[in-house]
Specification:
about 350 residues, alpha/beta, 3-stranded mixed β-sheet
Length: about 350
């Protein structure tokens, strides 16, 4: 009887595991919040006997919080070249090596990629466009640069409210950027246009299984998240002074910066943008849709930050997506794309110049 029972449990275990980790972005939360994956009971470092407040700032995360390593090394133990989880650093060699990752990939000082092509782990440089100025060192302590938990909640969703990719609702310093990025939690494959993100297939990070809704036609939750650290680069036409859009020059709206919400491509934008132009592309950049229609895109679609930039970065300056519209999809754009104009021409005829 005991042997049969053990065999039955062995059969059931994979089923229970798949049930507890099946939802996209929910890992490190609830039943999948497994302390031993990141923490140790007894620190291994030589100064472990010291009170945490007496340790060098660079040691506190390692010892004071009983982490296996410092923050980035702890995260990358599973998220860089490991079969356990998605790879977020450099070339995709993780659990799903064939995915064109929606967020692209991070770089790290002295190890992978070049600063300026996206988010750079360990960097103490001020965030471009931050208002007020913000750097990871100010939040993490002296000498401690950008780490994963500056953007992601390491223990999962906060206050029991699921957030896409465990994104922190309080990242950065700009108060206007605060807010949760919601998604179809608990029901992958079923879109809810009142949520910001539609995940078609759980536990995958390929861009083809993720799309973005626009619950508020005049705002973008993903854009507000980015604005936590990059406030000067996000705004709404006619409402944000540094974006512009209130004045008209003939039939064209004057913008000081590219708006991140409130500019539906099907709203008669004249020569500035074209819905039919975007629809004609086989490989399209990701835009938000108020109706949940992307193929073909509805008249309600509008760009936001991650339309033009990979959230983690890629091999291009600023993580820009050089996508011509033809060829094989890549994290840099597609096999036919190789310059900024290919990105702009997704929506703008002027991009062909």
């Amino acid at each position: 009887m005991q042997v049969r029972l053990l065999g039955f449990i062995a059969i059931l275990m994979p089923l229970f595991e798949s049930a507890t980790v099946r939802q996209e972005g929910d890992y490190h939360d609830g039943e999948t919040l497994r302390c031993s994956e990141c923490h140790v009971m007894h620190p291994r470092r030589s100064g472990a006997a010291q009170p945490a407040e007496e340790l060098d700032p660079g040691q506190r995360g390692f010892v004071g919080e009983l982490l296996r390593e410092e923050v980035n090394d702890t995260c990358l133990a599973c998220h860089d070249g490991s079969g356990r989880a998605v790879d977020v650093l450099g070339i995709n060699q993780g659990r799903y090596p064939g995915d064109v990752r929606q967020a692209g990939h991070l770089n790290r000082l002295g190890r992978s990629g070049l600063p300026g092509t996206g988010h750079t782990l360990d960097s103490t440089e001020p965030a471009p466009g931050s208002d007020p100025p913000w750097s990871a060192e100010e939040e993490n302590g002296g000498g401690r640069g950008l780490n994963c938990i500056n953007c992601h909640a390491h223990h999962g969703s906060q206050a029991g409210l699921p957030t896409y990719r465990n994104l922190r609702p309080d990242a950065g310093v700009n108060a206007a950027g605060k807010g949760r990025v919601t998604y179809n939690h608990g029901s992958p494959g079923r879109n809810d246009v009142t949520r910001d993100v539609f995940v078609r297939q759980s536990l995958r990070y390929d861009e083809t299984v993720v799309d973005f809704n626009e619950p508020d036609p005049q705002d973008s939750a993903m854009g507000r998240f980015c604005a936590g650290c990059h406030a000067q680069f996000y705004g709404i036409a006619g409402r944000s002074a540094h974006i512009g859009g209130a004045g008209e020059v003939g039939f064209q709206t004057r913008f000081l910066r590219h708006p991140g919400a409130g500019v539906d491509l099907g709203a008669g934008a004249g020569a500035w943008s074209s819905l039919s132009r975007l629809a004609s592309r086989s490989n399209r950049v990701k835009v938000m849709s108020g109706s949940g229609e992307w193929n073909p895109p509805s008249a309600s679609v509008t760009p936001t930050c991650i339309t033009c930039h990979k959230a983690h970065g890629n091999d291009n300056a600023f993580g820009l997506i050089y996508r011509s519209g033809t060829g094989t999809l890549t994290e840099n754009g597609d096999s036919g794309g190789g310059r900024l104009e290919h990105l702009c021409s997704q929506c703008h005829a002027a991009g062909d110049a």
